[in-house]
Design goal:
Blueprint: E1 2-4, H1 10-22, E2 27-28, H2 29-34, E3 39-41, E4 48-53, H3 61-69, E5 71-73, E6 80-86, H4 93-102, E7 110-115, H5 131-154, H6 168-182, E8 189-191, H7 200-204, E9 210-212, E10 218-220, H8 229-233, E11 239-241
Parallel strand pairs: 1-2, 1-4, 3-5, 4-6, 6-7
Antiparallel strand pairs: 8-11, 9-10
InterPro entries: 4Fe4S_Fe-S-bd, 4Fe4S_Fe_S_CS, EFR1-like, Flavoprotein-like_sf
Domain 4Fe-4S ferredoxin-type: 186-215, 216-244
Protein name: EFR1 family ferrodoxin
């Protein structure tokens, strides 16, 4: 069984590649939680896989929320894998997802990572990749997925298939801690005059944090997890985060959206 969370399409695309390889249909954890029914039967699956983006060198918060709430029946004794999609490196995301699963009585078998185009744009010096870097990452990703699939099939160690990067302890234990504690909740997202009230941002928000007012314009509540689905997938580029994103790019996986 393959569970995924994706904001810009990277993790969805990766989940689909594994799904095609292993003959499984990926399941959206955001959709499951919107239905408020996290009781899942995994008995027929040979393994369980979680595919999610790395946000500030830690697991995407929506995936952590899902793991906390889920009731996974029939997973006892099955291999459990995590596949992180990251722009550059993952820090110690593997340790955080391992702990989250252990808290639910599940043992992580192996954690892998797939490098995909960058999409975090809410801080100074952070922007999407150049067209050349984006193209190269997308071209290299299928080979990486095949390597991971082969390691799973052969039950081989994940050596070389997970990228922690330099300064991993500081990135995850300090920066990610600050991200989860201080940068979520109330946000500086806003719309520009280009917004036509299509409502896509509210539809794609995994947390139900965006509501449309009587004016059909989006309003953000106070439980944003900064997945950036709204700002990147707006078809009119009508969403900004304060002024810091005004001159920055937008990204959606071209093979998905």
């Amino acid at each position: 069984m393959i569970f995924y969370f994706s904001a810009t399409g990277n993790s969805l695309w990766v989940a689909r590649q594994f799904g095609q390889h292993f003959g499984m249909t990926p399941v959206s954890v955001a959709d499951i939680m919107k239905k408020d029914d996290c009781c899942i039967e995994a008995g027929a699956s040979p393994f369980v896989m979680f595919v999610f983006p790395v946000h500030s060198w830690g697991p995407a918060v929506t995936m952590l929320k899902f793991i906390e709430r889920m009731s996974l029946r029939g997973a006892e004794g099955k291999p459990i894998y995590a596949v992180c999609t990251c722009g550059d490196d993952c820090g110690r995301t593997d340790e955080l997802i391992e702990k989250a699963l252990a808290d639910r009585g599940l043992r992580l078998t192996r954690c892998f990572s797939v490098t995909m185009p960058n999409c975090y744009i809410l801080l100074p010096l952070f922007d999407i990749d150049s067209e050349e870097v984006e193209r190269r990452k997308l071209e290299n990703a299928p080979a990486r997925i095949e390597e991971i699939a082969a390691a799973i099939e052969k039950d081989e160690p994940a050596s070389g298939l997970y990228k922690r990067g330099s300064g991993s302890w500081f990135k995850t234990r300090v920066i990610n801690y600050g991200f989860r504690r201080y940068m979520q909740g109330e946000t500086a997202f806003r719309t520009t005059g280009d917004c036509n009230g299509c409502g896509l941002c509210a539809e794609v928000c995994p947390e139900g944090n965006i509501r449309l007012g009587e004016d059909r314009l989006p309003h953000w509540d106070k439980h944003c997890v900064q997945c950036l689905a709204c700002i990147h997938r707006c078809p009119r580029r009508a969403i900004e985060y304060g002024t810091i994103t005004v001159k920055k790019g937008r990204y959606r996986n071209p093979n998905v959206y």
